[in-house]
Amino acid sequence: MDLRAAMILLGGTAALLAGCATGPDPEVARRAQTAMIGMPKADLLACAGVPDRQAVASGREYYTYVARPAAAYSPGSSIGIGAGSFGGSGGVGLGLGFGVPIGSGSPGCEATVVVGPRGTVEQVSYPAGASLSACTPIVNNCMAPQG
Predict the structure, then answer these.
(1) Residues 6+ apart with CB under 8 A from 134
(2) What is the C-alpha separation between 24 and 108, in angstroms, rounded?
(3) Global confidence as pTM
(4) CA atoms of 28 and 137, how far apart (whole Å)
């Protein structure tokens, strides 16, 4: 394999990994704030699961779901010694490697779902400034696919 072929292979691999680094669709979390209104409590619990916290006040139930932050791959460096052959010649080399961050860490999200006295969802809210991509995993199973 010549140097040009190796560079093409490396570039293709980097492009493939970059394509995998996209996060959840924030539009799903945005749509959930209206689409889930009127959903029966039993359906909410079936699709979103058991809430992380819950409270009752003024005849309403407050369910809080938490999406934990995703761990990011952090850049780093390493030193390695290798031996091998390239193009028929053998040799020993010393190299310095650098980690490349792929994607970024998600800050996480908390979603609060309010179930009213009629037993249906009245509100789905996220904290001000929350990343809707980070909130999408909380409501994703409750949303019908767009298509």
Answers:
(1) 23, 24, 67, 69, 106, 107, 108, 109
(2) 12
(3) 0.62
(4) 9
Residue 74: Cβ within 10 Å count = 8
SS (H, E, C) 17-34: HHHHCCCCCHHHHHHHHH
User: Are 111 and 124 within 8 A, CB to CB?
Assistant: yes
Q: How far apart are CA 23 and CA 128, in angstroms?
A: 20
Distance CA(45)–CA(100), nearest Å, equals 40
Region 22-47: mean pLDDT is: 92
Whole-angstrom distance, CA of residue 87 vs CA of residue 106: 44
Q: 3-class DSSP state for residue 75? A: coil
Contact 52, 66 (CB under 8 A): yes
The letter for the amino acid at 104 is S
80-91 tens-digit pLDDT: 555 555 566 656
Q: How far apart are CA 127 and CA 109, in angstroms?
A: 8
Q: pLDDT at residue 48 above 80?
A: yes
- Structure token digits, residue 97: 């490697």
